[in-house]
Each structure stands twice: as structure tokens, then as C-alpha cells.
Amino acid sequence: MTLSRRRFLTISAGFACAPGFAQANTWQGRAFGADVSITLRGPNSHTMPALRQARAQITEIEKLFSLHDPASALSQLNTTGALHSPDSRFVALMQAADYAFTVTDGLFDPTVQTLWHAIATGKDIDVAQRAVGWRRVRFDAQKITLGPGQALTFNGIAQGFATDEITQTLKARGLQNVLVSIGEYRAIGGPWRLGLSDPSWGHLGTRTVTDTAIATSSPGAMPLGRADHILHPVAQPQWSTVSVEATTATLADSLSTALVLADMDQITTIKQASRDLGRITLVSGQGEVITI
User: Fold this and answer.
1) What radius of gyration do the chain's Cα atoms show?
2) Which of 5, 22, 43, 121 is most buried (most C-beta within 10 Å)?
């Protein structure tokens, strides 16, 4: 996902900025294997140093959670099965993943990396499915341990976590009108107008956000052979796109990923149980847009 000042820009599925950023400074780059951007409104004397700090922080976070970097903390954990004295941010993300696993009744499960890898490389899928199970992961501030044959992916939550981390840094610097997009969006101030799109149905509407986060997931955005890239050993995708608004991008990211696999009753129950959730937008396989 990238930012466009002149028009709505749809890349697979997500939110693209609408016009109106003449007084903004925007940095665009790559992180976690995707396009990322930060837009700050304010004088250059404030925004440019903040952008430099944010870029350095993105690099730090990517070194923790990237699957693409064999030297990242996550890659080390997946290779050895254990991570001693983990960074506090790694533990915080594990806690957030545990919360998402609990509230979605297991639909959000980072241990699907084993299954993803088996499908991508043509290995035994049945063996990989048996390795999936977040409850076999053990973690605390001293050590993280995976179950036999397990590997983790944070692709459904790390971008939201990074978005929150960067947003908090910019807020601490006194910036009051910010839009951070590290795979997912979080706003300080606003309003920011964003365009909702779907990989099959194109542009479907807009959302205006102020001081909130939005994350969008579409299982068909990146096919994995004959499978969708959002995997689960039991559940199958129920929606073409799910967009979640929440108080944090971490929560929005993890739930948008999981709710792709949930039916309407499950989604309604999860929304009613959390004060941290705002609108949930669902796009059916027939292109119908439902907002709850």
C-alpha cells in the first residue's frame, strides 16, 4: 500500500490516501516486504527530524520480526526453536498475539508459518498442519520456546505493531497531525480520508479517520498456489476483504487477519465484547459491503 496525493490508489486491498496533502511531508520506502509511508503535517523543522528518527526505528523493528532477514530475532527463533532474553518489544508482540488468539478462539494463530512453508515448498501438508497450535508456544521475559516442528509468522500483526511504535514515537515528539502506514494505518489527529478497495471488486468507498487505526486483509490479495495467503488448519476464508478500525493498529491488524476466517455471528460477538473496536467493514465474495 502506498500514498497518493492526487487520486485514490488501490494496490490489492487496503486504504489509499485521498487528495489534500499540500502542506504535508511524506516519506515512502519498504519494510516487511511491503511499501510503507509516513505523512506528517507541520513545519519542516519539526517533521524532517521526526521522519529520520522514524526510519531508523522501522529498521530496528524489522530486525526483530522480519521473515526475510535470516539474522532477525524471529528467524533465529524459527531456526533454533528458542529465543533467550528476547527484546521487550518481541515479548510485547507475543502478548498481543496471545490476546488475538484468545479473543478469536484460535482463528489468529502465528504458528501457521509451518503450514505456509509446506504449501510454498511442496512439503507434507498433513505433517505441517499437526505442528500448528499456539498453545504449545511458551514465552516470558526470559525465554520463548516453540513446540516441536513449529515456526512463527507475524505477518498478520507485526506491521500493525510497527505502525503503533512509530506513531507513539512521533506523538512523543509533539506531532499532532500524522498518518503512519507500515502495512496498516494509524492516525494522530486528522481528519484523514482513505479509500477502501478489494482485489476483485476494486474501489468500494471511503473512510474518514481521526485518532484511530485501520487494518485491511484480503485472502485473495496474494495467492499461495491454489491456496490463499491467510491460512488456518481448519477454517477457510469467509470474506473477500475485512477492514477493522481499532484504538491500535496492532489490534486492527491481528483481527482483520483473523476475521477473514470468521462468520458473521463470530464477528458480531467479538465486536460487542471489545470497547477497543470501531467499525468493521466486510466485503463478501459477491462484492457486497457490510459495515457493523
Assistant:
1) 18
2) 5
Q: Which residues contact 147 (CB under 8 A, 6 or more apart)?
A: 111, 131, 133, 136, 137
- Lateral strand order in the sheet of 241-246: 24-31, 34-41, 178-181, 185-188, 213-217, 241-246, 277-283, 289-291
Length of the chain in residues, anyone? 292
DSSP 8-state class, residue 218: -
105-117 tens-digit pLDDT? 999 999 999 998 8
Give the span between the Cα atoms of 179 and 240, in whole angstroms. Answer: 26
Place of cell 466485503: 283
pLDDT of residue 230: 84
Closest CA to 222 of 7, 14, 2: 14
DSSP run (H or E) holding 278: strand 277-283
User: Given this model, what pLDDT does residue 210 score?
Assistant: 94
If DSSP codes are grouped into helix, strand and coil, which group holds residue 274? coil
String of DSSP letters for 9-63? --SSSSEEEPS--TTEEEEEEEETTEEEEEEEES-HHHHHHHHHHHHHHHHHHHH
